[in-house]
């Protein structure tokens, strides 16, 4: 599977690219600037270049830019993405004096993304952090993926299942990204409160 990571120069994108590289995926990392993307690719031992360049021939696009840049980036690259399936991993959260909160009350970031571009969109991996991906061992947790279109959901589930020590689980339609994105705020609060590094693992699923 050829995977193009938009935002591959950020912490999550770098850790994801390195993990996928070690799992023998064909990985490319992109940046707005060709030189920065190319340098990051050399550093990680994967292909690198501008966002437009790495999208060519990709089987799955992972949108790993910061949440406040997700929609603008996708809109700018709509033509280059075309109908290539997209996995949105971002969570829109806000940091307040009372704790970390979901920034959206209704429509999720992934749902807005699906309305912005032509490509099919899945959402997931919000509970898997850069630290998890950079660890020596696969994280002992599950990865949840949701989406309306199997063209995006199926490759996203396949990829997610390789990234964790647990399971890749189908979490239903794309609207459930509202819960997955909000869960990031829950996990961040738990980690802060208990000085922990928590993830998600579901129990009671037959055959899993």
Main β sheet profile: 8 strands, mixed
Q: What is the overall number of helices?
A: 9
Shape: globular
Counting structural domains, the number is: 1
Which strand order do you get reading across the main beta sheet?
A: 3-2-1-4-5-8-9-10
Number of strands: 10
Judging by the overall fold, what is the CATH architecture?
3-Layer(aba) Sandwich
CATH topology: Rossmann fold
Helix content: 40-55%
CATH class: Alpha Beta
Structure description:
With about 210 residues, this protein is an alpha/beta fold. The chain has one domain: NAD(P)-binding Rossmann-like Domain (Rossmann fold). It is about 40% helix and about 20% strand. The protein is built from nine helices and ten strands. It has helices at about 10-20, 35-45, 50-55, 65-75, 80, 110-115, 130-135, 150-165, 175-195; strands at about 1-5, 25-30, 45-50, 60-65, 85-90, 95, 100, 120-125, 145, 170. The strands form two sheets. The chain has an eight-stranded mixed sheet with strand order 3-2-1-4-5-8-9-10, with helices on both faces. Strand 6 and strand 7 form a beta hairpin. Helix 4 packs parallel to helix 6 (about 110-115). The longest helix has 18 residues, at about 175-195. The protein is globular and about 40 Å long. The chain starts with a strand and ends in a 14-residue tail after the last helix.
């Amino acid at each position: 599977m050829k995977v193009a990571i938009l935002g591959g120069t950020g912490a999550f994108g770098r850790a994801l690219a390195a993990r996928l590289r070690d799992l023998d995926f064909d990985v490319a990392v992109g940046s707005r600037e060709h030189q920065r993307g190319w340098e990051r690719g050399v550093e990680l031992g994967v292909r690198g270049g501008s966002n437009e360049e790495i999208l060519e021939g990709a089987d799955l696009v992972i949108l790993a830019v910061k949440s406040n840049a997700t929609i603008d980036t996708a809109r700018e690259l709509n033509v280059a993405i075309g109908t290539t399936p997209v996995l949105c991993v971002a969570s829109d959260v806000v940091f307040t004096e009372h704790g970390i909160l979901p920034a959206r009350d209704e429509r999720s970031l992934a749902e807005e993304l699906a309305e912005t571009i032509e490509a099919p969109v899945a959402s997931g991996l919000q509970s898997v952090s850069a630290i998890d991906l950079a660890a020596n061992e696969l994280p002992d947790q599950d990865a949840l993926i949701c989406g309306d279109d199997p063209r995006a959901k199926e490759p996203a589930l396949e990829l997610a299942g390789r990234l964790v020590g647990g399971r890749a689980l189908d979490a239903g339609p794309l609207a459930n990204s509202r819960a997955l994105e909000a869960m990031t705020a829950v996990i961040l609060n738990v980690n802060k409160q208990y000085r922990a590094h928590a993830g998600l693992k579901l129990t009671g699923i037959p055959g899993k």
